[in-house]
Design goal:
Blueprint lengths: L11 H24 L15 H6 L13 H22 L5 H24 L4 H18 L16 H35 L20 E4 L5 E7 L4 H16 L2 E7 L18 H29 L8 H9 L3 H8 L2 H16 L7 E4 L2 E2 L2 H4 L3 H11 L9 H10 L5 H4 L6 E4 L9 E7 L4 H15 L4 E7 L18 H31 L5 H10 L4 H10 L1 H17 L6 E4 L2 E2 L10 H14 L1
Parallel strand pairs: 2-3, 7-8
Antiparallel strand pairs: 1-3, 2-4, 4-5, 6-8, 7-9, 9-10
């Protein structure tokens, strides 16, 4: 038989390649179906693993610059390869050069992704199966016997046929993705419509909180944007640049209200991350008092321009921009009338649940730029097309509930969990009690406050059980959290609580937790041993838990469950229905009201 017609001795290599290709196709199709909304987000094998979400939905989940999910690319690639592999099997010759090249490129990409998974400490079983299939295909193709001629490059077994199938699959996926995007756009349009509905029947208490302020643009426009802002806030400067485009439209106004992140004038701030923000807000108000709207607009622009040169003199900049006398500006800025005006804006913000800046309301509804992204002028464009009647913003309590609702649901925090212990529950527990989870550090005052609030609402009839897990504010036993400068006594306190539970079950766990919460930040080993004796723990067994390191290892595992799932640690962290509660208390919303409202919402869902 001529060499160019001589078949390979065995089709085994092609069959192995086909098996790898089929495995990769199934895995890629599964991942793509989630992205296309054809399958539930919680895939088998992913319910207790944050790796699926963090990889598929994170930066590694899409092609850089294009934004196309890699699962789509994988589905098309495996469809392309399977056609070529079937042709290779039928021809019983060595693989065509193009098949070798494409298989090699796919394997290199897969190995890179596997290295990325290891580096990120995240594991997605479906991603791993897809990459395994790619590597199997490449190895089978590269190690196949090299006798005989390459398989035909023409007909249905060759490159044209493989490319044709890939194009068909790509068009099918593209069409399904376009349908999904249209569905999302319709949902977004419905959400936008809520900016303008039910205004007439709504109460006006929160609407009044958007009144006042300093107005820029067309006061009679159909769209009114209210910005709670801070002149030292970088994100505020970004939104201010967008606000200029809104003002330029001619059919909208932008209202500026102050919320300086500075404890000097803002009672909602425990510290002053922007130490000159109160003075700058007062200077803007002083400019408006002395020079009216034109002077305010000039001062407003000048104060935001200072962000590029933070050491610049704000008073001199405002005086220069407005042409007003600097001494007179300073005098008016410190007057009781101007200080009261700034405080009124702050009070309005607190009543609306504002916790940071910028906080943006468009026709009464908050634009959650920090969650949904987009641009302010894009939101204004959609609202202007829908209607002009304003909606009523939620009060502080409802706003904190809505902030929880838009938080992503994290599978690793929502599914069954064996770590931690139930610390609070109704006296008559039931199987349908809602489980909420708290990652706490007993030395942190917020942990004590949160658990006390949850206890109070259980006493008032809330059907919840509270699972407490450890998350010490110390890098010594919680290195993945990124916390630095923490106190190692937090590690001791958390380990003591876990050890008590190991020795004495839930009852002793609760007793030690409550004892150390009462002690607070001054806990030490002597105090821990005293509390252990007071609650009836065996001294030798308790110390043995510390000596073995088992309690501290459990503390690390509990903390890592949270850190790996969220990549963001706040202590305490409250999780309800798999969603982290961004804030459970606020000067304008008592903790009990917020917690009860979120729990009621979780039960409705």
């Amino acid at each position: 038989m001529p060499d160019e017609l001589q078949p390979t001795t065995s089709p085994g290599a092609a069959r192995i390649a086909l098996l790898g290709g089929a495995l990769g196709l199934v895995a890629s199709a599964t991942l793509a179906s989630v992205k296309l909304g054809l399958a539930p987000p919680a895939l088998p094998g992913c319910s207790g693993d944050a790796g699926c979400g963090s990889l598929v939905n994170g930066p590694w989940g899409s092609v850089p610059a294009l934004g196309t999910p890699w699962s789509y690319v994988g589905l098309v690639w495996f469809a392309f390869m399977l056609v070529g592999l079937i042709g290779w099997l039928r021809a019983r010759t060595r693989p065509a050069p193009w098949l070798t090249v494409v298989a090699s490129v796919g394997a290199v990409l897969s190995i890179g992704f596997v290295i990325g998974m290891v580096a990120l400490g995240a594991f997605c079983p479906w991603c791993a199966l897809a990459h395994l299939g790619s590597v199997v295909v490449a190895l089978a193709v590269l190690l196949a016997p090299r006798r005989g001629a390459p398989s035909s490059a023409g007909g249905w077994t060759g490159l044209p046929a493989a490319a044709a199938v890939a194009v068909v699959v790509a068009l099918l996926v593209g069409g399904l993705d376009a349908t999904r995007r249209l569905r999302l756009a319709e949902t977004a349009a419905n959400e936008d419509a809520s900016f303008v509905r039910d205004a007439a029947a709504a109460p006006t208490s929160t609407t009044d909180r958007l009144a006042g302020g300093r107005e820029l643009g067309n006061a009679k426009g159909r769209v009114r944007v209210v910005l709670f802002t801070d002149y030292q806030c970088p994100d505020c400067a970004k939104v201010e640049a967008m606000a200029k485009a809104v003002v330029a439209r001619g059919d909208a106004s932008v209202v500026v209200k102050h919320f300086p992140l500075c404890a000097e004038c803002n009672s909602a701030m425990p510290s002053s991350p922007h130490p000159d923000a109160c003075r700058r807000a007062a200077l803007a108000e002083a400019a408006a008092t002395l020079g009216g709207a034109p002077a305010f607009a000039a001062a407003h622009a000048a104060l935001f321009a200072l962000q590029a040169t933070p050491a610049a003199d704000a008073l001199a900049a405002v005086a220069s921009a407005t042409g007003l006398d600097a001494a007179r500006l300073a005098e008016v800025a410190s007057s009781s009338a101007v200080q009261a005006a700034v405080r009124r804006d702050i009070d309005d913000a607190i009543a609306l649940g504002v916790t940071f800046t910028p906080m943006v309301f468009v026709n009464g509804r908050e634009w959650k730029w920090y969650v949904v992204g987009g641009t302010l002028d894009g939101v204004v464009e959609r609202v202007a097309d829908l209607a002009s009647a304003p909606a009523t913003p939620p009060d502080a309590t409802r706003k904190l509930v809505e902030d929880w609702l838009v938080s992503p649901r994290i599978d690793a925090l929502a599914g069954p969990i064996s770590e931690g212990r139930i610390a609070l529950a109704p006296k008559d527990p039931r199987d349908d009690d809602l489980e909420v989870r708290v990652w706490a550090d007993p030395r942190i005052a917020g942990s004590r406050e949160l658990l006390a609030s949850l206890s109070s609402i259980i006493d008032a009839g809330a059907r919840i059980r509270v699972r407490v897990l450890q998350c010490p504010a110390s890098e010594e036993c919680n290195p993945s959290s990124g916390m630095t400068g923490g106190d190692a006594r937090s590690c001791l306190a958390s380990a003591a609580i876990v050890a008590a539970g190991t020795i004495g079950g839930d009852e002793k766990f609760r007793a030690m937790l409550n004892a150390l919460l009462a002690v607070g930040p001054d806990v030490d080993m002597t105090t821990i041993l005293e509390k252990a004796a007071a609650i009836g723990l065996d001294h030798s067994a308790f110390q043995a838990q510390f000596a073995s390191g088992e309690a501290l290892a459990s503390v690390r595992r509990e903390a890592e469950t949270l850190v790996k799932a969220t990549r963001l640690v706040q202590i305490p962290t409250l999780v309800i229905d798999g969603r982290v509660v961004p804030r459970w208390s606020h000067p304008g919303a008592p903790a009990g009201d917020v917690l009860r409202a979120i729990i009621d919402e979780a039960r409705r869902q």
